[in-house]
Amino acid sequence: MHFPLPWQLLLVLVVVLLLFGASRLPEMGKALGEGIRNFKKGLSGDEEGKEIKKAEEK
Hints:
The protein is mostly helical. Helix content is 81%, strand content 0%.
């Protein structure tokens, strides 16, 4: 599998910019980052352990 060339990445970036506009890109990046972070937390099981400990303390 080959990595896209720089001009191909630039073309994709321009198309995304035209489709969504410059004002929506930071919002989309933030939402994507939060989604990835939550997915990783779900895989590691951190949240489950915290919830169990909180329930045991009560």
